[in-house]
Design brief:
Largest sheet: 2 strands, antiparallel
Strand content: under 5%
Oligomer: single chain
Helix content: over 70%
Low-confidence stretches: 1-34
Structural class: mainly alpha
Distance between the termini: 69 Å
Order of helices and strands: HHHHHHHHHHHHHEE
Radius of gyration: 21 Å
Number of helices: 13
Mean pLDDT: 83
Number of strands: 2
């Protein structure tokens, strides 16, 4: 009976994946080669949103790694459709990583890709920091490149949120893990960075430059507005030139 039950669970999982894949086979590529209709894109995004929400409550039935790989591939397809993302933005990026963490939290390469995809492309550095923190609870320092997850998290903390204490902790953890990986040069550099930011907090000018990177990297209006608002909060002034170009000036007093 146990064997039959496991077989049934496997069939349910495989059938579910196949059915959902057929019912909502990604149309990003189709849309990319056609005249992009914003209304149709919105409907496609809603379908993808519903799909991701469904899987958040779905058991892996022992196929967590397979599911994590599947969602990673779906993310690559979603992320890589520049034409569609210019219209809808990258707001689903964090949800793909949430599912990868649910099904395979030790998937180190995913964290390294999603870090900038969430903090820069989706303009959600706080969410990137949060999700990398969740993943780090499951990762071993002996996994290849695991120390870089701490390093990427530290970069978001100091670059976008000015969380000096949090960044110091992350840089030191990155150093400890780099030592375990026998990358002593990187470990030394990370410790030096942790010491440096203790006495040289990241300036507003540099943080404005970080948000300016997001501004120039995105064409989605909502994401650009987030960046503009953050620049203004940091004291930056924004001027729109007659040709539409944006000129940003940092405050003199940092």
């Amino acid at each position: 009976m146990i064997a039959i039950a496991k077989l049934f669970d496997s069939l349910v999982l495989v059938t579910g994946i196949a059915a959902i894949g057929l019912l909502q086979e990604p149309r990003w590529q189709q849309l990319e080669h056609s005249n992009i209709d914003t209304k149709n894109l919105a409907q496609e995004i809603q379908k993808e949103q519903n799909n991701l929400s469904f899987w958040k409550s779905f058991s892996s039935f022992g196929y967590g790694n397979l599911l994590a790989d599947w969602f990673f591939l779906r993310f690559i397809q979603y992320y890589g459709d520049d034409a569609a993302r210019d219209k809808t933005g990258y707001e689903l990026n964090p949800q793909f990583l949430e599912l990868i963490i649910k099904y395979d939290p030790k998937f180190v390469p995913a964290y390294l890709i999603f870090s900038s995809a969430i903090s820069i492309d989706a303009a959600m550095p706080d969410k990137s920091i949060e999700l990398l923190g969740q993943g780090l609870k499951h990762i071993s320092p002996r996994q290849p490149d695991a120390n870089y997850v701490w390093l990427y998290r530290a970069t978001d903390q100091i670059l976008f949120t000015n969380d000096v204490e949090g960044a110091k902790y992350s840089y030191n953890m990155a150093a400890d893990w780099a030592d375990i990986a026998l990358n002593h040069r990187l470990a030394k550099a990370n410790r030096k960075t942790a010491q440096y930011i203790s006495t040289h907090p990241y300036s507003k000018k540099n943080r404005i430059a970080a948000w300016q990177l997001i501004l120039t990297h995105n064409r989605f209006p909502k994401t650009r507005q987030v960046a503009l608002n953050k620049i203004r909060e940091l004291g930056g002034t924004i001027k729109i030139q007659p040709n539409g170009a944006i000129v940003i000036a940092s405050p003199k007093d940092n």
